[in-house]
Automatic annotation (TrEMBL), chain B:
Heme c 1 binds at residues 60, 63-64. Binds 2 heme c groups covalently per subunit. Residues 47-126, 143-221 form the Cytochrome c domain. The keyword Cell cycle does not apply. This is Cytochrome bc1 complex cytochrome c subunit.
Amino acid sequence: MSDDNLPTAHDAVHGHGEAAVAENPFADPGLPAHEPRRTDIDERAAKRAERQVSLMFVVSMLATVGFIASYVAIDKSKIVYIFPLGHISALNFALGMTLGVALFCIGAGAVHWARTLMSDVELPAERHAIEADDETRADVIQQFKTGAGESGFGRRKMIRNTLIGSMALVPLSGVMLLRDLGPLPEKSLDSTGWKEATPDAPIRLINMNTNEPMKAEDIGIGSLTFAKPGPSASRPGGLQETDEDFQQAIAKDALMLIRIQPDDIKDDKSKGLGFEGVLAYSKICTHVGCPISLYEQQTHHALCPCHQSTFDLSDGARVIFGPAGHPLPQLKITTDPSGYLIATQDFAKPVGPSFWERSA
Amino acid sequence: MKKLSARRRHPLAALVVLLFALVASGGLYAAFAPTEQAQADSSAQSLAIDEGKRLFAVGCSSCHGLNGQGSSMGPSLVGVGSAAVDFQVGTGRMPAQQPGAQVPRKKTIYNQSEIDQLAAFVASLGPGPATPTKDQYTSTETDAISKGGDLFRTNCSQCHNFAGAGGALTQGKFAPSLENVDPKYIYEAMQTGPQNMPSFPDSTMPEQQKQQIVAFVRYQANEAPNPGGLSLGSLGPVTEGLFGWIFGLGVLIAVAIWVAAHTTKAKKS
């Protein structure tokens, strides 16, 4: 392109570049002179830019087709090796790449279109006061007063008051829909899977790893073991992972078992609930119910990974740091005549986080 | 007799009596002494214990006491077993460099035979878990990895992260990453519960389950594919969010600046 095609003088309509005058150094300099783009003055360049934009949109279309094709065609368990990334899922890679290309090309095409072909003439938009002029306002107020007078809104108070009442009550239907968040837990959070344990019909503690009952001597000092309830009247096979309600049940029943030198237990009540230093605490954090078992065997602190609530298990699981509001409930355990660890009663307090109906 | 008694004041009489007493006592000893001679115990095990005791006196006794009984500086080693020594010294955690919340892993300063000698000495102080052999921590099951994954998520992932990448604990303590850790040390750590890690004795987690966990950890560290491409350390939302904010938004801002800075004017101003 040669300079011959360029305008030689500044456009009188758009350019007021000469407005800056020497006598007032702070005068509004106005907009700089408008300069055309290559695509504005060269029809071939404009055509080329048009083709480029269309090409990007076509690539986007192809990428979307590729997205659907790879979703259908690629097996989700297929793992491929791609150099800088290593062994990755072929499906994830294909979906990410095609969707990424499809979106990028739309964006890049739109930007290219706007920059090369859409009008780039500078347009000043001056700011004005938002309110209407006095005459219009007076007219609107007058109209409002007339309307209000004709409707008798101020005079017929019964209509007015019932209208206000109905308008105020309508949002309640939205509030009612929140009921779908229920039902309220009522008493279901007060008891756990250990609730059927009595001295006559105790429930054994089952090791989560081996699925076998445990003896007290199996729990070494400084060790950590997880337990779930064994057979009870309503659940003759004990809690099993194959049970339909396993997740709901284990969210309340899970225990962590530790053993502390009896002399190191600071809380006498806690010591009494354990058996020869073996203590059984709920594994559920009393803040928002995360499984909490980051147990430090030297300090006897248990830490919750979610919000760092820290409990001192040697001191009745007292909260020593973090947002939890209650100590971890402790399950009273003892052994049966054959030496297996058993529970003879439920937790004395509800496990897990606080709730409105919480009794203790 | 008269002759004998006449010479009883002879200057050499005392010497004669002394000689006679020596001969008699020597003869009696020869006659009644036990025939089996006391043998110095020179078996390999005992030599290792002796050698270990010497190493212990130099390198460990200032904290753990001359006989491993412990002091205010270090815990008693009676009953910790050879597995604990093999783990702590083999991973360079012991001897500790400085007191602190946690003794970190560092370069080992003893070679394996010295570690074995130290372990033999500490094991002789009281019964405890023994250093495992290779077939104790190597699983031969075909489904060990999947079973190990279940056990890992129940017992280990809360501290060591779902992929074994490690995590933070309270007051400067941390659960170390399990990547590039020798299977033997993983097994020993479960057995002995080093520092603040709880132990998982064979009574609550049998040997076979420890093997499965080791198999899973090795698989996770070495072979597990990375379905999403970049693992970003397998640390979850922390690194992913950081990556998204810094690289994702950063690239967008950079592109926006680049687009705006490049004029399409026919004449460069």
